[in-house]
Amino acid sequence: xxxxxxxxxxxxxxxxxxxxxxxxxxxxxxxxxxxxxxxxxxxxxxxxxxxxxxxxxxxxxxxxxxxxxxxxxxxxxxxxxxxxxxxxxxxxxxxxxxxxxxxxxxxxxxxxxxxxxxxxxxxxxxxxxxxxxxxxxxxxxxxxxxxxxxxxxxxxxxxxxxxxxxxxxxxxxxxxxxxxxxxxxxxxxxxxxxxxxxxxxxxxxxxxxxxxxxxxxxxxxxxxxxxxxxxxxxxxxxxxxxxxxxxxxxxxxxxxxxxxxxxxxxxxxx
Length: 270
Known about the structure:
With 270 residues, the protein is mainly alpha-helical. 67% of the residues lie in helices and 7% in strands.
């Protein structure tokens, strides 16, 4: 695991404490999957790469552990937290509810400035979906965050934002997934763009009921995409592992208590 020197230099230029800098860089690395689920975190390497003392790095790791993104191991340092399968039903339930609520309220409360921002984020997402699949998860989050802000409820926007952040890791796994049959990756991207456009139109005409229905359908599209990805197993670039089991054994066991890891992270942990 390594954070490049240019990124570390940009971090040093930001305002704030060293702890915040370390936290931001680690969190971004985890959510972008540059730091893979299950991968060990070398505190010494972080100290050298970020050119900080060990204390702010350790404080950042503790903060990330509280958010469920890092696992602190007794006498063994830390590792990037897995994505546990058992949490997925609750995650998708919460995501659907928060998405329905924020998009419903946005249709009722959005201002002209809010609408302009949503339109800009939609156009940006559509462009990225055509030319840069790797940028899709972050652009998708920005589009939905703009809608959440248009709801003008800070508590709801914060809750929904945290769910969007948790979904980033899943999104980055599934964006590379191209199923052998049925809906191809290109077709899936086109469907997402069409959904976003329909949401924009509903919010523009202040149709809260339509916005909520579309938000629910859009959340279910993501849920089904993740389930298809999980069913594909190794063919999708990741494996499902269970505690104390090799990946293949976990899949044969049909366990629901495993976790999602990249193939490399799963192999290195055995």
